[in-house]
Task: inverse folding
């Protein structure tokens, strides 16, 4: 009686948990009988849990698939809107161009045989297109309509809406389809050959048209305007200075244009993309307006669809190269525009200078005595031209300095952004490290408090066990074990509460010794 059965007194399913494989029988005190566990029931529970988990995973996959499909549909809807607007714009432009071409040919065909031949060619192409539709496209649509009609009749018969079974010769229909496919394949091969021949012919025309682009460009810049050649100056030196200044100004602008063209050629040489892929890339990007929301996301998605053999990294790299090339082309366009304005201003200033010189020469003729004054006027005019040249050179230097400062400022801005990003990442890492250090410290403090509380509780249990051991011999001999349990069970409730507070999933040695000593 001094040692009570620990499993009989304190076995509780809520405390021991679901890991116990046996359940003690409570039909007698200190009983060692056990009833077997229902493994079949446990297996059924595990199977139900697995099925529930599988259903949850299936729902999650379905939700992810639905989200992916909805995102894809939204992107396709945005693509459809953009391309529909582009289609309408191109259709309108095509109709307008065809109408203008037709009007132009009708007006000029009576005056020039060349335009008359072009109009005849356009009419011939229109007749060929009508013939192609009649001979190639109309049979395909007719066969499609016949097959749809037969299929509809058969569906009606199978659904018992019609009692008359349609007579369908499947072998004949299959033979017609194969013949149509063969015919369309032959027509398509012929069209492809014609297209390749036209492309080769256009390439030859293009090469012949661009045989000497550098000579044409030099002629465009270095050719002296007719206004300067026909300039009437009283002094030959003045005209020579004007022409010389024009040549120097044109040479400086031509040198800048050559540098820009060299940059474009270098970009073209360094690109490993095919010409067709570059054309697709440029065409797709140009379809999306710059003010469109999520423009970059849309055209990158469309580029991945049109160029599946290119990775996203290659597309991004090509995008950067394209932006750089576009900026260089804008710079070239601005340079040509600036040259046109500068050329016009130079011609006006030269004409004005020549007019002033002519007026001065007329004054010299009228006033023969004022020869010195005429010399001073010529010198003044020459000084003005030189001053204007200096001003133009200074303006060119200032433009170059402004461009250099802008580039330097852009590089500095990018460098500062990279440094800010590096500092931000370092700060985030330091905050995360500090956060985990604080959490570790809190956990250690909580563990120390729990251990201290456990030690105090064990001391209290030991003292109570000693007191109970001293009282145990004083119990009357006539008290039976059942009566003893009935009397002392409320007082033993502290052990059960202490055990729950310690969250012991199985009886430990310290708790067992304490209870047995009681």
Result:
């Amino acid at each position: 009686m001094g040692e009570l059965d620990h499993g009989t007194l304190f076995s509780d399913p809520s405390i021991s948990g679901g890991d116990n494989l046996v359940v003690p029988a409570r039909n007698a005190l200190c009983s060692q009988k056990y009833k077997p566990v229902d493994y079949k029931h446990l297996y059924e529970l595990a199977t139900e849990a697995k099925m529930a988990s599988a259903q949850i995973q299936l729902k999650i996959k379905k939700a992810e698939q639905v989200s992916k499909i909805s995102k894809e549909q939204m992107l396709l809807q945005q693509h459809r809107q953009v391309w529909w607007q582009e289609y309408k714009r191109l259709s309108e432009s095509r109709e307008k161009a065809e109408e203008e071409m037709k009007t132009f040919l009708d007006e000029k065909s009576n005056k020039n045989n060349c335009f008359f031949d072009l109009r005849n060619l356009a009419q011939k192409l229109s007749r060929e297109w009508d013939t192609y539709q009649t001979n190639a496209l109309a049979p395909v649509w007719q066969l499609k309509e016949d097959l749809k009609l037969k299929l509809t009749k058969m569906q009606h018969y199978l659904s018992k809406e019609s009692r008359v079974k349609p007579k369908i010769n499947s072998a004949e229909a299959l033979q017609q389809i194969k013949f149509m496919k063969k015919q369309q394949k032959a027509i398509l091969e012929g069209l492809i050959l014609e297209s390749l021949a036209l492309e080769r012919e256009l390439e030859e025309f293009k090469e012949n048209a661009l045989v000497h682009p550098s000579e044409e460009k030099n002629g465009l810049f270095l050719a002296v305007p007719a206004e300067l050649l026909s300039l009437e100056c009283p002094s030959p030196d003045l005209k020579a200075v004007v022409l010389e200044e024009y040549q120097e100004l044109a040479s400086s602008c031509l040198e800048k244009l050559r540098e820009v063209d060299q940059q474009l050629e270098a970009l073209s040489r360094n690109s490993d993309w095919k010409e067709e892929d570059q054309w697709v890339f440029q065409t797709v990007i140009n379809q999306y307006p710059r003010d469109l929301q999520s423009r970059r996301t849309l055209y990158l998605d469309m580029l991945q669809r049109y160029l599946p053999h290119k990775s996203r990294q290659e597309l991004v790299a090509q995008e950067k190269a394209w932006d750089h090339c576009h900026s260089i082309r804008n710079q070239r366009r601005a340079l040509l525009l600036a040259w046109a304005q500068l050329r016009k201003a130079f011609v006006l200033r030269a004409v004005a200078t020549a007019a002033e010189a002519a007026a001065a020469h007329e004054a010299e003729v009228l006033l023969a005595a004022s020869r010195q004054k005429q010399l001073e006027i010529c010198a003044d005019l020459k000084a003005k031209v030189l001053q204007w040249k200096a001003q133009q050179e200074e303006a060119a230097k200032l433009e170059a300095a402004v461009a250099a400062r802008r580039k330097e400022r852009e590089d500095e801005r990018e460098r500062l952004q990279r440094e800010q990003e590096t500092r931000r990442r370092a700060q985030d890492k330091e905050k995360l490290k500090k956060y985990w250090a604080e959490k570790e410290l809190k956990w250690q403090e909580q563990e120390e408090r729990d251990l201290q509380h456990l030690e105090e509780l064990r001391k209290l249990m030991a003292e109570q066990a000693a007191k109970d051991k001293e009282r145990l011999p004083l119990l009357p001999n006539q008290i039976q074990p059942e009566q003893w349990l009935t009397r002392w069970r409320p007082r033993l409730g502290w052990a059960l509460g202490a055990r729950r507070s310690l969250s012991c999933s199985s009886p430990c040695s310290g708790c067992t010794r304490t209870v047995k000593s009681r």
